[in-house]
Batch of 3 targets.
Target 1
Amino acid sequence: MSALLNKLKKGKVLVVGDVMLDKYLEGKAERLSPESPVPVLTPLGEESRLGGAANVALNVSSLGSKVKLLGVVGKDLSGEEIKDLLKENKISNSLVKSNLSSITKQRILAGNQQLLRIDREDKFTNKDWIKTKENFKKEIAKYSSLVISDYGKGTLFNVQELISLSNKKKVPVIVDPKGDDFSKYKGAFMVTPNLQEFSKAVGGFNSETELEKKSKLLIKKLSLSALLITRGPEGMTLFSKNNNQNIVKSHYPAQTIDVFDVSGAGDTVIATIASGVASKIDLNQSVELSNITAGVVVSKLGTSSFSLDEIIPFLTGSSTLDANVCIKAIQRAKKERKKIVFTNGCFDILHAGHVSYLKEARSKGDLLIVGINDDKSVSRLKGNGRPVNNLENRIEVLSSLQCVDMVIPFSEDTPLDLIKEVVPDVLVKGEDYKINQIVGSDFVKKTGGKVERIKFVKGLSTSNLIKKLNKKN
């Protein structure tokens, strides 16, 4: 599953919709006003975050996919803040500047308790829409998926027009809907309502059977390829057409992460799915990943995004990412008291001996980190003609193993520097090494870890396999 994170870098997502600024004024309230029975707030700090369609774009960027944001902001301080935050997060954008106010939500907090929310919003003009549509026409053909982030704030005058233009360019459209009437989203690839939004759109339901029936009817009525209903603590339910155009139901239980604030969870879900679709990743796998990313976001206060190192510990399967991201994820896992196991090798031609070895290594802790020699270091160690498989292919095979949690390449002849960064609880190597011959053993023991040896399956080695192949040739 998490090997898919690398593929997301290939995705190109266009986001259009209601761009917002979410402001948070935090303070403490320890007494009531003598003038009225309301709390007196002592301000402690203020923070601004990207909201609405801008938060969707931020989440897409967090996954590593390319993204561009289209929408409308005002010629005001909030509009400037939005532009600054987008620049800070390196998010490309073409925002129309309206004479009306930027959409702004000001939240007043005492500790973690929200006391008040002040919304500033104007319905944008048809002139703003025409400029937005012009920007859209210039950009749509450059992207592999489109997110329509509809908060009903007035940016999107004619959603059908955007869907039609996208379909002509064969760009799948994923919609975060608003309102009771979903007919305006007809022809979209996918719509992602929450349970309440879905219920209003279909006139309610009284059972799971009725929910399923009405979901299938909605897909047919709107000519959708898929419908995803987000159900809070109950998880997510996906209805999607298979190769035979039959509608299939799949359910994803909620991740077991503490729910702190559901703000922005829908943004995260649609951003993850759009990135997956743009990267040609299977829809079910994209939804599964969105379930994880949303689970991380709801554990935070307010409208939030995530970083890759936050989601790696929740992934089933292996991860091969930037070394710095992996190290951050390992550090996070250690804070959660997870036991880190490390091993290394060339893993040129993966065989049954390797798989058996890696399974046993994984059994010694909670996360198995595999250091893998890059191509140049393999050549130095093994000689001309090696590796048989290049680094990318070797990583792909290792990453497919359930027992491997992270794969980190290194360019040195030994993994000592990487071991010092990982600081594993258990260092594992084959039984053909004595403990004092294992690179990093002294360091691991000094830092309170263990060094263990694992038996190899007799007769299985990459070198022997190559010799057999050469004899046959």
Target 2
Amino acid sequence: MRLNHQAAAAVTMAALMGVAGTAQAAFQGRDNTGAPSATCTATGPGKCTFFYDTTLGITILNNWNLGTGTWSASAALGSAQALAATAGLAASGLTGWVLPTGDNEAAVGAQNQFLSIWNSVGSSFAGLSGQFDGVQAGNNHWSGSVFASIPSLAWRFSASNGNQFIDGQSASFFAVAVRPGDIAAAIPEPQTYVLMLMGLGGLLLARRKRAR
């Protein structure tokens, strides 16, 4: 579904609720159009499609059960990277979706997004599964980070306890899709489309007059 970005800039979320099933401290809900929503939840009929992580400055696809794949720097068919890219594109109509970073040798932040997310939900499985849809105990998720010392290995994240380990890239683990920036700001406002169409119409009319 292509995002229909209506009233995205008009809705500002204040402090978010910290109970299971609702957006927690670092996360702002985004509905299926990409617009901010103070009422969408982690699961259920009114669940958010995305969450904007205000700490990391990334949008996270709410579905944490996208399937499993191997690790591939080129997002080869069947890889976790390909699953993340495909799921993000299908949900938003936008490209640029990748796996979160997860280097256990790095501090929270751009190089270890998984650890930052884990800390933001209270460093517990209950917090993680209360924040995002489809989180399963025992699931391991590929990060987008290779193991610097041995490039044939990559880092993975455990949904059960937040631990990060290295594994061979041929192993099959789950995918999580993230995208830089706030998806609510990635789509032009409806009036922008109107102005673009008006400009295109004026250009075509001018060309017709010159052709006469």
Target 3
Amino acid sequence: MNKVILITGATGFLGSAIMRRFLVLGYKLKLLIRKRQRNRSITEDFILNNRMDESPYGLFLDNVEIFEGDITSKYFGLGKDIYKQLCSEVDEVLHCAAATHFEKQRADELMMVNVNGTENMIWFANSGKQKRFHYISTAYVAGKGEGVIFEDELDNEPQFNNEYERSKFLAEQMVVQYAKENVIPYTIYRPGIIVGDSRTGFTCNFDNLYLFAKVLSNIKDDYINRQGQDSRDQDRNVTIRVPGDPNALVNLVPIDYVADAIVAISQKRETVGKIFHITNPNPPTLNELRNYLTSFLGINGVDISIDGQMEHKHLSTIERLFLRQTRTYHPYIFSKLRFDCSNTRNTLKGAGINCPVISHDLIKILLNYAISHNWGERERVTSQKVVMV
């Protein structure tokens, strides 16, 4: 527990959750965060305030050192002397920082941050004293694969749904090749689609599941209620089509499970050189999620119909709106990928760390938090003050 860990992405959703767990365990932490014209107290407040589990502020002050830099720059933009000092002090690196947008027009940024930035991080792991390297990837490096995806496959580049998947795959391949050539102990973690805390609902990312729920909520508020005001329409059933495959598997994983699993796996020597799917072994289908969401939101008198061919049909105004607002995530509501997680299951056996079942009750916890925080509008104001790595 006297080890020193350098963490990137500690101001992000997953990075901050992992950071807090290491902090409570007694590790000394070096946080590499993006340069900004802000004072340190704001950064500390962002990382520790209003989080899902308590991290004593004194622990943060005594055991955390913050470095404002850039993973894509030489010496992380810190200067050679500070870089060399970190090389000699750090025992392990947990690289969580990434660009996560899917837009094709920003492919250069994805390559710069996710591939070149990761390359700089693993070079750092091989500079000064050798360091163990933990890399946070994504289960969706599988791209447009089919069937069951195993943790130790994907030697050949698949077809991808977007440039984000491609950049994470290339980064993974580079990590494995460089680590093997230079005998660097490495471990790769591939989370599924991360949602809020299963106990409190806490999240600071209101995309994926939350975007679909918010659009459905708007359908209820702006469309169904308006229809209900007309007595002539009160007994009419309305059908609204939404995109997707009813049997698609949506691999949702609560943040507490993902962070707990990664921290537990990272502390074991036998996990060196392995890849771990931090995924849901029993993911809900899109049809099940639709039922959970409509039940929770109280959408009555309307049939939300999942239609995989709706783009090729005549659409109502509200159907076009739903299609446009959710288009980024369409590959994941048609996917039937299953992720084998044998490495994860075997390593966590007996640890009491299990992926919560995605149920109506859990969806209620997640969405109650989202609604009480106005679907993230409060967090967006905060993120304007502290830019995420």
